[in-house]
Amino acid sequence: MTSHLLALLLFPIALNLPPRYGCTEIIGGRVVSPHSWPYMAAIQRENSTVCGGALVEKQWVLTAAHCELNEPEVRVVLGAHQASIAEKEQQIFKVMRYVPYPQFDRSSKENDIMLLKLNGVAKRNKYVQTLCLPDSYEDIKPGTMCKVAGWGVTSSGKPSKCLQETTLKIVDRKTCQSKYKNPKITSNMLCALGKKLHSKRDACQGDSGGPLICADQYSGIVSFGSGKGCGRRDAPGVYTRLTEKYIDWIKKTISHDRDP
Ligand code: 4AZ
After folding, report:
1. Is residue 30 packed enough to be buried (19+ CB in 10 Å), middle (13-18) or exposed (0-12)?
2. What pLDDT digit, counting tens, does each position of 157-185 carry?
3. What's the pTM value of the predicted model, to 2 decimals?
4. In whole angstroms, how large is the CA radius of gyration of the chain?
5. Residue 210 included in any domain
6. Which is the catalytic residue, given 112, 160, 202, 219?
7. Ligand 1 pocket, residues with Cβ under 6 angstroms
8. Ligand 1: which atom is nearest the Cα of residue 27?
9. Domain range enclosing 123
10. Which of 43, 68, 204, 212 to mutate to test the pocket of ligand 1 (most atoms within 8 A of CB)?
C-alpha cells in the first residue's frame, strides 16, 4: 500500500514532469520558474505581447520609448507567467500616460527609455513587486554576466507563451560598434551577447522594453538588435543603459506626477 503510494508520488518525477504547463523552450532561453521575475510587465495589444517592461513604482512601468503605442486597447499585465491567458496572480492595467524620454530619437535610437503611468496602483505581493533602480551610476564592465527575460520570439520564430530568460555577457562598446554600421553605440547603451560561443542567445522581437539585470542590479532596457535577425554571433543585442541622467529623470517624473 505505502509502496504504491510512493510509486504514485514518484511517477511524475520519473517522467520529468511537470511540463511547465504546456510550454517548451527570447532565443536560446529557458522558461523561467513561474513568478521568479515578479517585477516583469507584459505590454499587450489584442492579447499579444508587443513589449516587456519592469514595475519601478506602484503605478509606473519602465520600458523602451520605441514601445510607445498610443492606442486605447493597450494593456499592461503584471504578475504573469503566461501573459496572454488569464491567471489568478495577474493584475491588469491600462496606460494612463506615456512619458517617453524627451530626447528619444527614433533614428539614432538614443534615449530609448519611457515611463508608463498605469491607470491604477499595483498591489505588491508574492507575484508583483517593484524592481529597484540601480544604486550605482557606474558603467557595467565588459564580461559582466547579465540576464534578460521576455515573452518575445524564440528560436521557433514564434513568441513564447511563458516568460523566458537567458544569460548574456556584456561586450565592450568598441567591439559592439564594429558590428554595427549604424547607429552610433553611445555610453548610454550597453551591448550584450550570449555567453557561450556556440549557443545563440539574445532578446528578440517582443522583448523590447524588458529589463537587463547585471550582477543583481537593474542595468538596462532591451532596445534593438541587428536588422538581420536575432541571436547572430556577430551582432550583440543593444540595451539602453540606466545612466545617471535617466535615473534622475525617472525619479523626477514619478515624484512630479503623483495623483492628488
Ligand atoms: C525587438 O524588436 C528586438 N536581438 C529586441 C531586441 C533585439 C532584436 C529585436 C536584439 O523587440
Report:
1. middle
2. 999 999 999 999 999 999 999 999 999 99
3. 0.90
4. 19
5. no
6. 112
7. 202-208, 222, 224-225, 230, 237
8. 4
9. 38-131+245-251
10. 204
